[in-house]
Amino acid sequence: MHVRNKSLTPLCGSSRVARLLVPSAACTLALSLSVWSSGAAAQAQGPNPPPLAMGLIVKLKESQTPSVVRLRPSVRPSDAAPSQRARLYAAANRKRVGFLIQKPTAFGAHVIHSGQFSSVDEAEAEAARLRQDPDVAWVLVNRLEQPLAGRVNTVAVPQSGGVYDDHFWLKDRTARPGVARFATAWGRIGANRSVAPVVTAVLDSGVLPNDDFSGRLLPGYDFVSEAQYARDGNGLDSDPTDLGDYLTSGEKQSNSAFSGSSCQVGNSSWHGTMVTSMLAPPAGSGFFGPGILAPLPGAVVLPVRIGGVCGAAISDVIEGMLWAAGIDYQGSPPANPNPARVINFSYGGSGTCRTGSATDTLYRQTVTALESKGALLVAAAGNGDGSVGVVGPIMPANCDGVVAVTALRKDGTKSSYANLIDGSLSAGYLGIAVAAGEFVSGSPGVTENLHLISDTGASTAVARYIRPDVDGTSFATPQVAGAAALALAVNPGLTVPALRQLLRDSATSYTNTYTTYAGSAPLCSSVNRANCRCDTGTCGVGVLDADKLVELALDLATNSPQPDFSAPAVAATSFVPQRGNGSLAGGGGGGGGGGSLEGVSLLGLLAALALGLRQRFKSGRP
Ligand SMILES: [Ca+2]
Ligand SMILES: [Ca+2]
Fold this sequence. Notes:
CATH topology of the domain at 154-245 and 264-559: Rossmann fold
Bound molecules: calcium ion
Largest sheet: 7 strands, parallel
Number of helices: 16
Shape: globular
Strand content: 5-15%
CATH architecture of the domain at 154-245 and 264-559: 3-Layer(aba) Sandwich
Structural class: alpha/beta
């Protein structure tokens, strides 16, 4: 089975299998296909393969002092592309860093690589040399981190079967204190006027066509930048269809991009399709039943493909996030006409946002950029060390401004595989939890797991819809993203800070949850990390309550008009990068490629100032 390393891998799994199988690639539908097809026993654990990298992300120092007029949201470097290339080659030559491919990326930086995966250690050695060059501002390794796949137990059902009755996670809390009360929230929305269109982006392995997604997907994009791991024969393109993230043993031996790497052989995960199936299906969906966003009419999910064979490179992830929110950047494809207000990211990697490294600064700046557009990033807390959850969450879920989501059993105790959310993180940090499956010993998948849409194809899709039993923080995450989208639908003016506060205020405290059942599990701690009882020190602020969230959002809409983030002219020009005071300056200056008129930059600056004033007014800050 498989496992590949990727930089950011889908967090669909649960613990045990996770490590073993998953490092990378996707999660494990594959697994299920071959291993679990008849409810077989869990896989044994194995060591994690070393993480992979696809080159470096390099930012050169600014060669000119950018003028106010030149400031642009896309954060292009202050000198022209040919000059940037020449400087990059010179610096790399001075520091003996070879590369074959160079492309501009967000924040005025460049991706350089040889076209082959390397170990992170090898890439770090090159990065260390390049950082010593006087013309280099910062360098980070373009990782494909280990995946945290979960278990999948494939159960094929006919398309006419209908599985809504299985969707305990959409229903009320009777005997299920870990669920989010989506059906109740739908009733509340139905009784309250119109809803605004809200776009939720799913950054994932892509999506497969499906009857249950008909009319519900917006035109997305494919950010998997290199053909050797994209499966569609090219780099960026406008078709986010999932072509599979499988890797055969023959390919691994014969293809120099994979041979010698720790990328694991395995089947396609169809991870993005599973995540999408939790959100997109409309109320009248015959096969699957309604998804979380069922009360919202029209197209609601923006598929953004960032993960291919071996995972998702950080550079592709950052670009996909910015594009999803409607933010232009150096080298960006045509602007996304349907900016997302919520971004679901059920992938994750190793590392922390709290080390001051270039990598975490890049994520933090991305989160800041998203917030300036009113876009909330929701990310999976991770699936542990291969047996049980670890004290987490992992990056980017551990970055300030991101909502980290961990997984519960439906009885409200923590799922064994799910990472803890460290209560000692900064005061403003927000984690939350919700039921997302657990393979209970002796009855795998029967009552505890989620049943989602996938495909039986081990490599390419064969369009046979199946209903695998799955678990993983990958599937807790879209519940929080979907709930946030419902809140925005009834109150589209909510800023990201306001939305985060509502998530915090509406969450059900663990104390209240546990009055409903006589749990014998120990309290979660750094020692008790498997199935345990949560508190705010270990699993975030509480259990997601979608109905309470919508109620509070409606109250706020009634009581205080909010700024309107939907105005694209303002939002599209509102991001001016912060100039970091450390190794990772935001880039800054405008000019550069793209042929934009500088006059537009001034308008953008004015718009940004106006937006900032409005946001400050709204939040009550001076
Ligand atoms: Ca492509
Ligand atoms: Ca494509």
